[in-house]
Structure formats: C-alpha cells, structure tokens
C-alpha cells in the first residue's frame, strides 16, 4: 500500500492527464449516445420535420414510400425535395405539393416532387 501511495505522489501529472482523458472519453460517449432528437431508426442525418413529413406522406393514398429533404436558412424553410413512388400520378403529385406546402408553410414553387425508381 505504501508503494502505491508513493507512486501516486510522484506521478500526479500523469494521473491528472489520465483522469482528464477518461472524462473526455465519457463526455463524447454520452453526447453520441444521448442525441434525443434522433429517430428510433438511428438515422441522425434526418431532422424531426423530415421524419414527420415522410410518415405523413407515406400515409397518403398513392404516395407509397417517400424520401424528404428540407433545406433551411436561419430556421426558415427555403426548399423541399420529395422523392416518392407515386409521383408519376398527377393527382398524387398535387396532393404531395399541397400537404408539404401546408405542413411547412412554404410556397409550392419551392417544393420539388420527383418519382422514385
């Protein structure tokens, strides 16, 4: 026990550095694990608005699977790109435009809807 106490006294700087590194590693791990705004699927690149819009669009008759990208500038939406299975149908495309425009309060001219492969 005396040897451990003597070692600790003689190497305080090493112990402090090791403790700081350990704290840094724990902080990074907690930040990565606790990103509460991310979806359950683990897709951290999608915003909550994009995920909600994808869910709503996929529920509309004829839309099918949908992918959404929202572009924002200083918190306001400046553009939206929608790629969905049913976009070849003019009525589906019109419904998608109306829903996205209403949900995000964005002009229809700033929304692009394309058919999915």
What does this protein structure show overall?
The chain is α+β, with helices and mostly antiparallel strands. It has 2 domains: 32 residues; 68 residues, 2-Layer Sandwich (GMP Synthetase, Chain A, domain 3), CATH 3.30.300.30. The protein is 50% helix and 19% strand. It has 4 helices and 3 strands. It has a 3-stranded mixed sheet, with helices on one face. The chain is rod-shaped and about 80 Å long. About 6% of the residues have low confidence.
Q: Give the averaged pLDDT, no decimals.
A: 85
Put simply, the count of helices is 4
Uncertain segments are: 36-42
Q: Sum up the overall morphology in one term.
A: rod-shaped
How far apart are the first and last residues' alpha carbons, in Å?
A: 70 Å
Strand content: 15-25%
> Helical proportion?
40-55%
Count the beta strands: 3
User: Major sheet: size, sense and barrel closure?
Assistant: 3 strands, mixed
How would you write the strand order of the largest sheet? 1-2-3
CATH topology type of the largest domain:
GMP Synthetase, Chain A, domain 3
Radius of gyration, CA atoms, in whole angstroms: 25 Å
Using the coordinates above, name the CATH class of the largest domain: Alpha Beta
What kind of assembly state do the chains in view correspond to?
Answer: single chain
CATH superfamily of the largest domain: ANL, C-terminal domain
Can you name the CATH architecture of the largest domain? 2-Layer Sandwich
Helix/strand class: alpha+beta
Order of helices and strands: HHHEEHE
